[in-house]
């Protein structure tokens, strides 16, 4: 059976999790989340965390041996070569988790939350792409507020990703999250009502995109 695989992406803090939670609770759809797999990849005792500790030294770990995410974030959101290095060891693990979960699921529709869907060239993993967007200023403010970041830290994270205009240009569905939560969820309802299963052609999919 061919599954409907909705790839949910957008900029950091534009509202992907908000949409995913709504699709899970209101439409009972299973959610697969790249950020969760990426956390699993670096769990204590994992070979990937060992590689990271070897590359950056033990100082990249917290006293309890967990990854110091703040420290690694400071490195990779400011140094593109280091970001590439980290992604090269984490992304194959994440891709594998998706393939396995899709294979094992009996659901005919699944939602894949993939912040770096375009950057990592994962278009061919999904059958349709939804992009959640908001204005650049809202995005930065929401990120600062939610993660307690400085203006500069938030800008570094945003600038580590492909521009939202590029993501919108490549989307099958665009959800505008620049006003209220109700408006966002209403758009989701409209899309769920109007959009039937629509496979992307394989020729549209696939290459990694430089940021
Ligand atoms: C650097 C890390 C430790 C920071 O952890 P932190 O808890 O602060 O953030 P979290 O993991 O919750 O990610 C939050 C958001 O940051 C953005 N982000 C994460 N990694 C990247 C990246 N390599 N490039 C651009 N944006 C990224 C995404 O929008 C993500 O949703 C972590 O993000 C990480 O391990 N990143 C590398 C793995 C990766 O590429 N993950 C993205 C999903 S595959
Ligand atoms: N319409 C809205 N109005 C005000 N705040 C919002 C709105 N939508 C989302 N938010 C807030 O913005 C923040 C980011 O939303 P959310 O966590 O859904 O984004 P995300 O795209 O999943 O983020 P990430 O890329 O970091 O995983 C959250 O704190 C959320 O509560």
* Estimated helix fraction: 40-55%
Q: What is the tally of helical segments?
A: 9
CATH homologous superfamily assignment of the largest domain: P-loop containing nucleotide triphosphate hydrolases
Series of secondary-structure elements, N-terminal to C-terminal = EHEHHHHEEHHHEH
Beta-strand percent range: 5-15%
The rough form would be described as: globular
Number of domains: 2
- The averaged pLDDT comes out at 94
Question: How many DSSP E strands?
Answer: 5
Rounded to the nearest angstrom, the distance between the terminal CA atoms is 35 Å
CATH class of the largest domain: Alpha Beta
CATH topology of the largest domain: Rossmann fold
> Measured on Cα atoms, how large is the radius of gyration?
17 Å
Task: Give the cofactors and ligands.
Answer: dephospho coenzyme A, adenosine-5'-triphosphate
Strand order of the largest sheet: 2-3-1-4-5
User: Which class of secondary structure composition applies to the elements?
Assistant: alpha/beta
CATH architecture of the largest domain: 3-Layer(aba) Sandwich
Multimer state: single chain
Stretches where pLDDT falls below 50 for ≥5 residues? 201-205
Catalytic activity: 3'-dephospho-CoA + ATP = ADP + CoA + H(+)
GO biological process, one term: coenzyme A biosynthetic process
Protein name: Dephospho-CoA kinase
InterPro entries: Depp_CoAkinase, P-loop_NTPase
């Amino acid at each position: 059976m061919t599954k409907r695989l909705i790839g949910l992406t957008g900029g950091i803090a534009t509202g992907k999790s908000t949409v995913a939670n709504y699709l899970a609770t209101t439409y009972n759809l299973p959610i697969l989340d790249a950020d969760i797999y990426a956390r699993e990849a670096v769990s204590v005792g994992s070979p990937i965390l060992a590689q990271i500790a070897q590359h950056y030294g033990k100082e990249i770990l917290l006293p309890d041996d967990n990854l110091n995410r703040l420290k690694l974030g400071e490195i990779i959101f400011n140094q593109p070569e280091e970001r590439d290095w980290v992604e090269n060891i984490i992304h194959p693990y994440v891709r594998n988790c998706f393939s396995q979960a899709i294979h094992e699921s009996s659901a005919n529709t699944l939602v894949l939350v993939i912040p770096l869907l375009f950057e990592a060239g994962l278009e061919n993993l999904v059958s349709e792409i939804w992009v959640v967007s908001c204005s650049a200023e809202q995005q930065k403010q929401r990120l600062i507020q939610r993660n307690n970041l400085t203006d500069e830290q938030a800008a570094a994270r945003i600038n580590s990703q492909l521009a939202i205009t590029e993501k919108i240009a490549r989307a099958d569905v665009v959800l505008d999250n620049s006003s209220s939560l109700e408006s966002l969820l209403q758009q989701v309802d409209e899309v769920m009502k109007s959009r039937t299963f629509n496979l992307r052609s394989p020729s549209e999919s696939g290459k990694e995109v430089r940021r």
